[in-house]
Specification:
Length: 349
């Protein structure tokens, strides 16, 4: 084995030397060291990498400053596109902090100590190509001002945001993912109306008492768990033809607060209404695949909620049905359910 290794290295050596680089140079230069040799030289155009961060020569457009105990935003070279500042103790982003970082595409600032008052009004203004901004797990009480309209993924969850107003998200035509869960939001007003491309909205674990108005028409996943919503608006799902996943567990929903046939819409794949105050099984589409109704106050197993007609050709596509933690037992399931719910792998009562 040793002889084979020597032969291989001796065969590669002339080729390496002919290209002007040492094949063993990597053994003598540690990762992150400022001086590199040959093609491994770090790009310093637009500014040098700060000492407290790593700018790998193999990925020169990224700057890793995560988990370094930083309290301020370091100097950022203008060529950097991917900036990792998470898991630090950064408490402010003044206007001048990102003025040189005009090439940024990803900015990771989650798990820091940022407050709304310490973020400059123009801090993000020049980041015209930014697509991902992670600000979750900070101490924000409002959405930062003048966020880039280029954003596709915005994460503001686990802060202390109380309200979202239309100007906060105005002009974000490209935004597809919005995480606002784990805040103290009581009102969304009509702030979601302008989000033409939004496909995932998570507003769970807030203090909402109603469903936000003017939901974006391209929503695919909508999460509202752990709020205080007791009713749904008329035509709740009207115009949301692409919506497949709805999770509204741990709310205050009652039968009278859900208009008839609200969930009897094709396209819906998963519906979670567990841990509410329902006494009846709501009517759902025969195309629904997963239904979670555990921990309600349901007193009757109504087969008509799943199948309007029960025969060989008409049946529900349900695969998962959870009814445990209600006021019914296995004996309450009618015999006809074997035809209607023939695809259900299990029915938990």
């Amino acid at each position: 084995m040793r002889l084979e290794t020597v032969i291989l290295l001796s065969a590669l050596l002339p080729l390496c030397l002919s290209h002007g680089w040492d094949p063993l140079a990597w053994l003598f230069h540690r990762h992150g060291q400022a001086q590199q040799v040959g093609f491994l030289r770090a790009d310093t155009v637009g500014g040098a990498c700060p000492d407290e961060c790593d700018c790998p020569p193999t990925f020169p457009i990224a700057m890793y400053c995560d988990g370094r105990g930083l309290t301020t935003v370091p100097s950022i070279p203008s060529h950097i596109k991917y900036l990792y500042l998470q898991n630090n103790a950064i408490s402010a982003v003044p206007d001048a902090a990102l003025v040189n970082a005009t090439s940024l595409v990803w900015l990771m600032l989650h798990h820091n100590q940022l407050t709304s008052d310490a973020i400059g009004k123009e801090a993000f203004l020049k980041l015209v190509g930014l697509e991902r901004l992670f600000l979750h797990h900070n101490n924000l009480t409002s959405v930062p001002p003048n966020l880039p309209r280029s954003l596709r993924d915005l994460r503001l969850d686990h802060n202390r945001i109380e309200k979202v107003i239309p100007t906060d998200l105005e002009g974000m035509d490209n935004l597809t993912i919005l995480h606002l869960h784990g805040n103290e939001v009581t009102d969304m007003t009509t702030s979601l109306k302008a989000l033409k491309s939004l496909t995932l909205l998570d507003i769970s674990n807030n203090k909402l008492i109603k469903v936000p108005d003017a939901l974006p028409e391209h929503l695919h996943q909508f999460y509202m768990e752990f709020n205080s919503i007791d009713s749904l608006p008329e035509d709740f799902l009207g115009g949301l033809a692409q919506l497949q996943y709805i999770r509204m567990s741990h709310n205050l929903l009652k039968d009278k607060g859900i208009p008839s046939n609200t969930f009897n819409v094709t396209g819906l794949v998963e519906l979670d209404l567990s841990f509410n105050k329902l006494e009846r099984i709501p009517t759902v589409s025969s195309t629904l695949q997963h239904l979670y109704l555990q921990a309600n106050q349901i007193k009757e197993f109504s087969l008509g909620s799943f199948c309007s007609v029960v025969d060989v050709t008409n049946f529900s596509k349900l695969q998962t049905l959870r009814l445990d933690g209600n006021e019914i037992s296995q004996e309450d399931i009618p015999s006809e359910s074997a035809l209607c719910l023939r695809l259900a792998s299990s029915i938990q009562i």
